[in-house]
Amino acid sequence: MQIAIVLYDRFTTLDAVGPYEVLSRLPGATVTFAARQRGPVTADTGMLSLVADAAIDELPSPDIVLVPGGPGQEEQMADGPLHEWLRAADAGTSWTTSVCTGSLVLAAAGLLAGRAATSHWLAVHRLADFGARPVRQRVVTDGKYITAAGVSAGIDMALELSGRIGGRPAAEAIQLMIEYDPRPPYRAGSPDTAPADLVAKTRMASRHTASQPVSAAD
Amino acid sequence: MQIAIVLYDRFTTLDAVGPYEVLSRLPGATVTFAARQRGPVTADTGMLSLVADAAIDELPSPDIVLVPGGPGQEEQMADGPLHEWLRAADAGTSWTTSVCTGSLVLAAAGLLAGRAATSHWLAVHRLADFGARPVRQRVVTDGKYITAAGVSAGIDMALELSGRIGGRPAAEAIQLMIEYDPRPPYRAGSPDTAPADLVAKTRMASRHTASQPVSAAD
Fold first, then answer.
1. Which of A63, A158, B38, B200 is geometrically suited to a Cys-Cys bond with A22, CB 3.0 to 4.6 A?
2. Structural domains in chain A?
3. Which pTM does this prediction carry?
């Protein structure tokens, strides 16, 4: 089972590495990080590079595609080689997935039209610009398309996907090995629980303009 | 504020990237991934490399040190350049931290003697071999030493550390941006909640031998 995780300049690392840490532990899975060209790809902070071991063109037929988000997503919205690759790969995937604003790239490539999907809470409304139906939920599944909310949501998404692929015991074994028994020390992980002034300030500073809040569905 | 995250062959990526994703967002923080030599370091799966942008010797005085875990930890237990660097760096740190079996490396370097500490649930008992007091808790703080449980626990640890450094509002702002509102689809993230047969089977297959279970303290 070939899993392609797409990298591009200024991606958010945890969007990619959270699901990788889960999916790479699925029996029979091979995860390949792929970018336009092979080689190091620098994350959004400028403080870390991950190595793309393949060019996307070297992976024409992955079983699963995962697109992470990050500030660099804005440069991946125009039609071009990545979108062409995504459309061609998607024709043969079992699952096409995203984390955070990675769903905007899938949507801009035309893959989410008419489908329910999610994204980072600051960006989820933008899915409507591409004919998708924005849903504020941690993980949204519509057919073979699974989209996750912001950054850390990719871990939850990947565990759910692992259960669908390998069955519940396989997913539980992964969860136990990565000791995923989260205990956030604060209750600020969602705009529904974070202090209202922080949510307002964060919305004001966001690059995702014309924000029409989408209510939580879960 | 200089934060050094140590890389070594066959580290577990999420151990390092979870805290990085949090700590890199702290105002004034610079995170540097450092290994014995600069260049790509391959993770435990063999499917991913992260680039160490510095050699540890180029970072003699970090404010914070973080050591991740992973199967490669076993090769970092003998005294040598990494331990020497850890002891020298630790003399000047504000915080010395670990995720998963990274605490065994800190302990083997002599930094946790007499201290409460934690590790991956399968390995936590081994801390006693180095004079530390094993505690089964998600995050354990003893003075300036903060150790986290397995793999994903580094996210919780880094949020707690962010609050200690930058104050609660700074930590909450980070948690909101990475949408850390975890919703594991299964309840298998701890040996206390996972199916008993899975826990037993996992313990049998573990490389951490002579396992004397340490009871949960939280």
1. A158
2. 2-204 (3.40.50.880)
3. 0.96
